[in-house]
Amino acid sequence: MSRRLHLNVNILNAGVFGGSWRFPGTDPLAAYTVEHYTAIARKAEQATLDAVFLADGPSLDPSVRHRPGNNLEPTTVLARIAAQTERIGLIGTLSSSYNDPVELARRLGDLDHLSGGRFGWNVVTTAGPGAARNFGRAGEPEHGLRYRRAAEFVERVVTTWAERTEYLSPQGRPVVVQAGGSSDGKRLAARIGEVIFSAEQDIVAARAFRTELREGARQFGRDPDGIVVLPGVSTVLGSTEAEAARRRELLDELLPDAYARARLAGQLGISLDGLADDEPLPADRLPDPDDAGGSQTFYRVVKDIIDRERPTLGQLLKKLSGGGGHRIVVGTPEQVADDVEHWFRTGAADGFNVMPDVLPSGFDDFADQLVPELRRRGLFRSEYETSTLRGHLGLGLPAVPTGVWDRGPLEAAR
């Protein structure tokens, strides 16, 4: 069978845009109800998407003052989704920094068994001082230490799954998902990742990232085809180009300025107090990405935009629209399909982690208008051919990773 596109939908609160909760007809508090997630998941299954994806962080987000944020715990929600769906994959984010590997292995392994082999674990090291304070720590662990701990943590979890003799999964064990943008992250992704989320804005950089990960996997003795790279993309759809542009403009108008500034300041690790919208970003105050704290992936994305485009603060806030730095594609279903097809066919992506602008309306447009267009082009399935997430992704069962990193960081990080 020819290579096929892979698609997940990220059910991120009311949508990825910072002003999505204020969009006309949107319930700003829907993300605090389980029906919000199950309804979108059922729609995604009707559209034969590979999986639904839930992001998460083990802390209260202070930006809730400007935007309804935080969300229900992923495994709880995905258990409910599993009970109301039959085929669609279930990917949940759980921290390697603030969980116990034995407990997590049991919880996720049981969910994989009960769902019929549909679960995937998005491994995150959890950046930011907020989560650290939530666990009684003065500050977040150093970046390299977080990744050394993550490597040993994943090895322990996967080994525990492989040793199970009861409550087995039809897919063997859950799919390991990872987002590796930093040097440490890419090393970990190449060693243990099966699905890799990325945040590339540029198609050349995206192609280079995918090539680097596949070559890294080869050096670790893995099959490069055992890695599926899914860049994040936010879609803004309209029946005409002008309609799509108006929707994007409205979303920019609805973006709370305080939220956008606070989010950007957190990504860059600098204060934006006193900086006017028509002033350029202080590029000389930004450290090298390898020296940055927090999430180096999104720091790199934003710093690259600053270095390349030299935007004013207002221009950068509009470009990001309060999102996390993922690429935004605006247009008709045909225009967005052109973009998706180009990235896919030129080797920049194996598919996409889709973040609709507004939920549920933006995903309704994606499922009802864009997916049929992708099918007409022979890029996407019309029906499920398998019943497990690993099957949807065309992935085999890799060897259990051993010796991923130096021993000892789990204890050192406590």
Please outline the helices and strands.
Layout: E1 6-10, H1 34-46, E2 51-54, H2 74-84, E3 89-95, H3 101-114, E4 119-124, H4 129-134, H5 143-162, E5 175-179, H6 183-192, E6 195-198, H7 203-219, E7 228-237, H8 241-254, H9 257-268, H10 296-309, H11 313-320, E8 327-331, H12 333-345, E9 351-354, H13 361-376, H14 389-393, H15 409-412
Parallel strand pairs: 1-2, 1-9, 2-3, 3-4, 4-5, 5-6, 6-7, 7-8, 7-9
Q: Concise description?
A:
Helices cover 43% and strands 12% of the residues. It has helices at 34-46, 74-84, 101-114, 129-134, 143-162, 183-192, 203-219, 241-254, 257-268, 296-309, 313-320, 333-345, 361-376, 389-393, 409-412; strands at residues 6-10, 51-54, 89-95, 119-124, 175-179, 195-198, 228-237, 327-331, 351-354. The chain has an eight-stranded parallel β-barrel, surrounded by seven helices.
Question: In terms of structural class, how would the helical and strand content be classed?
Answer: alpha/beta
- Which descriptor suits the 3D outline? globular
**How would you spell out the order of helices and strands?**
EHEHEHEHHEHEHEHHHHEHEHHH
Largest sheet: 8 strands, parallel, barrel
Distance N terminus to C terminus? 47 Å
Number of helices: 15
- What low-confidence regions span 5 or more consecutive residues with pLDDT below 50? 407-414
User: What does the radius of gyration come to?
Assistant: 20 Å
Considering DSSP H and I runs of 4 or more, what fraction of the residues is helical? 40-55%
β-strand amount: 5-15%
Strand order of the largest sheet: 1-2-3-4-5-6-7-9
Query: Please, what is the average pLDDT?
Result: 89
Number-wise, the strands total 9
